[in-house]
């Protein structure tokens, strides 16, 4: 036992001293697992992938306090259950809510997560009758007010997508090659999680996206762009407390949240995540679909956008109520106009 503890201490000291250690290495993964028992790290990414390549897919920008909208406050009369999962609470929309998207070789997490929330909420508000997703491709390519850098694949603020939904509308569109809706996602799924037997092509084989042209027409034949436009009922809503986030999800469905990503998050497999080791890698945007408690640790249930080969079939749990990785600072959604 003493030998084991001594080895763990020496490994921790070595990792702390050597900031150049590969955060995708077996050594780093073993270190994460040796430091805690709340979550399991494992291989999601090939250890030879440069971290710089992964950072290009972290396209979330954290809102400045001066630009934040006034938060929405819900009635305290809305009872908050111990646990909640949007997938089981709205079974008529489980297919839509269960959809794990893939942003591919593009830093579009801000758009694909926002479009997923729009899709969830349209289905929920319609009682399950509106199952066709809202197009992330339309947001990335046509929301010019969202473009902070050269194109939508270089990251943005998710709240701008909800404002655009209200002001201009977003057409329907499913995932790549799905033929769902007017404008499906144009970039094919790829294996950032470079498992040897992965079912997708390697992201490294795809060309870097340097431009996204706005085409106000449907790529799916037989559909009219204007007829396929969906709208938000109002601009973005922001939720500033854990309880208001929970009441919002209870009432209306999933929300998007900004997440500060550290290097250990890249190797998440199961359990309730919190930052254990590694440097900050960048900002990311994810979708919160519920909450619960595991081994007395409160958590959010969230969906990532790195396809279903990452993490727990594309999902992860993260500590709730302590603003883990800034997840509770920037949470947004909007209601659909039916």
Q: Into which percentage range does the β-strand content fall?
A: 15-25%
N-to-C span: 63 Å
Per CATH, the class reads Alpha Beta
Which structural class matches the secondary elements?
A: alpha+beta
Radius of gyration (Å):
20 Å
Number of helix segments?
9
How many beta-strand segments? 14
> What is the H/E order?
HHEHEHHHHHEEEEEHEEEEEEE
Mean pLDDT: 89
Sheet with the most strands, sense and barrel status: 9 strands, mixed
Low-confidence stretches: 1-14
CATH 2nd-level architecture: Alpha-Beta Complex
Oligomer state equals single chain
What is the assigned CATH homologous superfamily?
Answer: Cysteine proteinases
- CATH T-level topology: Cathepsin B, Chain A
Fraction of residues in H or I helices: 10-25%
General shape: globular
Number of self-contained structural domains = 1
